[in-house]
Each structure stands twice: as C-alpha cells, then as structure tokens.
Write a structure and sequence with these properties.
Elements (H helix, E strand, L loop, with lengths): L1 H7 L4 H5 L1 H29 L4 H15 L13 E3 L3 E5 L8 E3 L5 E3 L8 E5 L8 E3 L10
Antiparallel strand pairs: 1-6, 2-5, 3-4
Amino acid sequence: MSHVFYVLYPNHPIVEGHDTYLKNMKKILSVLVFFLSILIVHAAYAERTPTKAESDRTSAETIVHTQKKAMCQACNGAGYFPCKKYVRVKCKGCRGTGKMYMGDGKYKTCSVCKGSGAVTEPCPKCKGSGKVMCKTCKGQGKY
C-alpha cells in the first residue's frame, strides 16, 4: 500500500524525508493490533459458558473430591457422641419434694415420682436415642 502512496504522490514531504517515520508507524500499529487481538480473544474466552462435557467433567471431579474426606477427629468417625438415653429431672407433680398437698393440711406421697422427687425422662439432647450428632462433621463421620 505504501508503494501506491509513493507512486501517486512522489513529491509529498512524507515520501521525501520521512521513510523511517512510516516504518516506525507500521511497527507501532502492528504491536497495537497484536495486543488488541489478545484482548479480544481474552474477552471472548472469559464470557463463554462451559460446554456440557466440561460441566460433566467438573461435577465428576467434585464427586471424586468428596470421596476423599478425612475421618472426623472430634467423633472418631462415628458421626455421633454417646449420650445417656434418660435423665433424672425434678418431678413436676410434687415440684421435687416427693409429697403432694391434699388440701386440708395433709400431704401424701407423690404418685408420679413415688416419693423420690425426680422422674426419669428421655434425654432432651438425644431424645432417648443415646446418640448426639457430631456438629463438626454433621453426623457424616467425615469432613
């Protein structure tokens, strides 16, 4: 293209004394075009959505990764802590005294706790199962 310029305008000032100027401008423009093409390719790559094969591969890698869980050190891999199935609590019938007021100044032995003042109820933590879920591994035994 520069040859056409030389032929059409042989006496132009750029043609007569600025050959190096044109060569430098060509180099600068070629470098700018190169970096612009890199930016365009990068932007196109960043905006693209993964293909089905890529998403399947990613999900398969995730599954493989989850199979390599380490044993929970808090519960030794059991997923739970042993707990008492039942606990002794204050009797609600006699309020822990073991005796019930009859109304005319007389007391009798509490029929609920049989005079002991306490009753056995399922543990509120494990609800009578004897196991409390490990909060570290959420009952999985691994994390």
